[in-house]
């Protein structure tokens, strides 16, 4: 997608085939800063500090982290250590482990002298596949937005989203935002309610920035506003992303998603989740019980960072000094609250049968 009219992906390699670049998302929306990822440790730190975030982009960054690790040591031990280091960076997004497993599968049997080339080639292929997958998600989701538009001809369609599941959470297009970008490009009058998404403000800082760069009408709302808007008929559908979806269709996503799904159910608003199949964890069913939920520093809750009136980036404390804070990064929305899953193969019920209908190869023999 575009930044100031120039097309970018969220991660890329320069013409030399080895210099990995990312957009430092901790600097957005105030500064657009591209940084280099030169080592395994750079990649791991970028994921941990959320310079990159969003399940698919975490996976893509880990893939390049593996390639960079091999560039300095292509031994079996270094390969396995790189995988372990990257697996420990963040606990909830399953795409991380999926991408690492894909990389291990492509590299383990290669002779040592071919490993670096094979790793960079595989990482690039994973990135290209992510872009194509998200394009397909966008096309399937577009049909849902069209259906909502057909139900109220001549009127604006209001879509609510939470966190950032746009192009900078993936390699390009995004998951939840891909259908919105496609609807906008198809000339539909679509407007997005953007949950600010405390504590890291991925909605206010990233989703709103992305949509603004692309010219999509949007409005930032405080996180607790969605229920009120739904009660007053001001949300036609909600679309969110996910960091891990279980085999029965339970969905982990940024903290606060569950409450939006509850409000949507109470108000008969369709609540969709968009995801590439790399986000499905086929090994677990009960998401509330089995998905590990990241807990982050309480300082993300007690402090906020932004641009002051004189243009400086400042961090301020918003709570009484000494008050402890809890910071659960994600919650799980049970499948019964999800109207449908938008995948690269189409839209299905949030259920085991729904998912297996689209991914029959996952049926046990
Ligand atoms: O903590 P983050 O910013 O990595 O969390 C990201 C989200 O919750 C996204 O909505 C989710 O990863 C879907 S990304 C396409």
Strand numbers in spatial order across the main sheet: 8-7-6-9-12-17-18
**Under the CATH scheme, which class of the largest domain?**
Alpha Beta
Percent of residues in beta strands: 15-25%
Overall residue-averaged pLDDT value: 97
Largest sheet: 7 strands, mixed
Bound ligands, named by name, code or SMILES:
5-S-methyl-1-O-phosphono-5-thio-D-ribulose
Question: Mind telling me which CATH architecture of the largest domain this is?
Answer: 3-Layer(aba) Sandwich
Query: Any idea what the CATH superfamily of the largest domain is called?
Result: Translation initiation factor eif-2b, domain 2
Radius of gyration: 20 Å
Domain count: the total is 2
Task: Write down the CATH topology of the largest domain.
Answer: Rossmann fold
- How many DSSP helices? 12
Structural class: alpha/beta
The topology string of helices and strands comes to EEEEEHHHHHEHEHEHEEEHEEHHEEEEEH
The separation of the N and C termini measures: 41 Å
Low-pLDDT stretches are: none
Fraction in helix: 25-40%
Label the overall shape.
globular
